[in-house]
Amino acid sequence: MDQQTMLVTGGCGFIGANFVYAALAQGHRIVNLDKLTYAGNPENLAPVADHENYHFVKGDICDDALVARLLREHKVTRIVNFAAESHVDRSIDGPAPFIQTNILGAFTLLEQSRRYLVEAGDGFNFRFLHVSTDEVYGSLGDEGFFTETTPYAPNSPYSASKASSDHLVRAYQHTYGMDVVTTNCSNNYGPYQFPEKLIPVIILKALRGEPIPIYGDGSNIRDWLYVVDHCEAILVALEKGRGGETYNIGGHNEKTNLEVVKHICAILDDIRPGDKPYSEQITFVKDRPGHDRRYAIDASKIGEELGWKPKESFETGMRKTVAWYLENMTWCEHIFSGAYRLERLGLGENQ
After folding, report:
1. Which among 134, 185, 204, 263 would be 20 to 30 A from 300, CA to CA?
2. Is 143 a catalytic residue?
3. Using an 8 Å Cβ cutoff, are 269 and 260 in contact?
4. Domains (range + CATH), the chain
């Protein structure tokens, strides 16, 4: 891919930060626009803060004037939209921010891009890549997979807001001819994930000797994707993807939540053994309202059309992830010094 100037939204978040590292490694220029809400952590990108091709801007993707200025000032040729409220439990407790950021924010980016392209004229090299989720498809039964043609059936305020933004992206391609690509990914894990998600919660609760919570009976199934593989897939879609297309990105790693917890406990037993097996800390708790039973991605399209496939297996990626958290406990403690304390969210009570 030729060097591009990318406006990366939400680049201080989990997937966004990993993407910034991957894009800089390929020689691209990055303008990172992040509001720095609870999950946006500038410490994630401290090693590249002074990189000649990296520029950070604190701001909101709903700010029309700011988005318009950044596009023109930096002569942006690519937008990669990671910015989103993304935690299902938080969307249950308080859905309003999800509507604001995930729908109105995506609209602002699209509309300001449209105006920017009108000024730039025909032939300007520009692409808008929208990062979405497999949760827009709803819940699967025991068999089958989500494909790019699976009807949308979101079941949480989070997934409904992401589905809405996906439709807006599609509309701007069909109505205005904008070069857009949408990617829908399965559950990511890896370095820099905010510790309210399943994988870091398991690791940190285990190390603290606290109960490791599993929703319901632990039989909910997810497809797990190592975040670095995901970011490489996005870069491939940016370069080779067909305009107007959607690409599902998955790790080919279907696991029940209970399998994931037991696997992480076994890794910890191996590399940070305690007085007793960590699996003895597993505790089953009240299930999340509207908890989808199974997600599974068919990622054959991006493999066949663009030649991408994940490099990490569940075993290799998870061992790397556990090792990263063990080596970066200071990063975790800095987060705990704020408002989040690994407390249970998403019960939808007293709201």
Report:
1. 263
2. no
3. no
4. 5-193+226-253+293-314 (3.40.50.720)
